[in-house]
Automatic annotation (TrEMBL):
Its EC number is 2.7.1.-. Removes the 2'-phosphate from RNA via an intermediate in which the phosphate is ADP-ribosylated by NAD followed by a presumed transesterification to release the RNA and generate ADP-ribose 1''-2''-cyclic phosphate (APPR>P). May function as an ADP-ribosylase. It comes from the Archaea. The lineage of its organism: Archaea, Methanobacteriati, Methanobacteriota, Stenosarchaea group, Methanomicrobia. One of its GO terms (molecular function) is NAD+ poly-ADP-ribosyltransferase activity. This is Probable RNA 2'-phosphotransferase. InterPro entries: Ptrans_KptA/Tpt1 (IPR002745), RNA_2'-PTrans_C (IPR042081), RNA_2'-PTrans_KptA (IPR022928), RNA_2'-PTrans_N (IPR042080). Belongs to the KptA/TPT1 family. Pfam families: PTS_2-RNA. The keyword Acyltransferase does not apply.
Length: 208
């Protein structure tokens, strides 16, 4: 459920996490999920199929998207789309004036323009069956334009456990990769993006 606090803006849940007030109702959980699924598809995978033009950096026209939503779901107001974006703890989307885009997760070709990542190490969780292959061949995108790396060990574990019970965490030598001229971008505070991670920069995280 999405609600709005008059002081702290949109939030998900029953009470504002900052001040504890209940706030104004904006969107129920079922419609939040339906709207989120559709927005994810449109901004990451099939903009052209629904009649939206996406530029090279993944942006589409915000008002056109609002009109499209309204034609599909009578309840999908402009405010509800904004609330979905601003209350999302995973920072999946961003609005810039008259444009909106997904911050990561694209399967369509995009040329994102985020700031350079400056962390010395990044992390990637995999199943035990995948480890040897990735250590030998490097990490390539799977159904996405970029490899999504975690900025912390804990986040890598959290993401990997969605797919496997006992993940192995790989460590990426981001500092060396940058020295060698490879581009690494920050999508948000938890996710960094690379087009491909060569095996030279990948090892099993040893906990040190």
């Amino acid at each position: 459920m999405i609600r709005k606090c008059s002081k702290h803006g949109y939030f998900r849940g029953e009470e504002c996490p900052q001040c504890g007030i209940k706030g104004r109702y904006v969107l129920d959980s079922e419609r939040e999920e339906r709207l989120g699924r559709f927005i994810s598809g449109v901004l990451r995978h099939f903009p052209r199929e629904v009649g939206l033009k996406m530029d090279d950096e993944g942006w589409v026209d915000f008002e056109l998207l609002c009109s499209l939503l309204k034609s599909r779901y009578k309840w999908a107001t402009r405010e509800r789309l904004i609330s979905l974006v601003e209350s999302d703890e995973k920072q999946r989307y961003e609005i810039d004036d008259s444009r909106i885009r997904a911050r990561y997760g694209h399967s369509v070709d995009v040329d994102l323009d985020y700031p350079d990542n400056e962390l010395p190490s990044l992390y990637y969780g995999v199943s035990q069956e995948e480890v040897d292959m990735l250590l030998e061949n490097g990490i390539s995108p799977i159904r996405q334009t970029y490899v999504h790396l975690s900025t912390s060990y804990g986040k890598a574990v959290e993401v990997a456990q969605i797919h496997t019970e006992n993940p192995v965490i790989l460590e990426i030598d981001a500092e060396k990769a940058r020295r060698d001229g490879m581009s690494i971008m920050d999508a948000n505070e938890d996710i960094a993006l690379m087009e491909y991670v060569p095996s030279d920069y990948v090892c099993i995280f040893d906990g040190r």
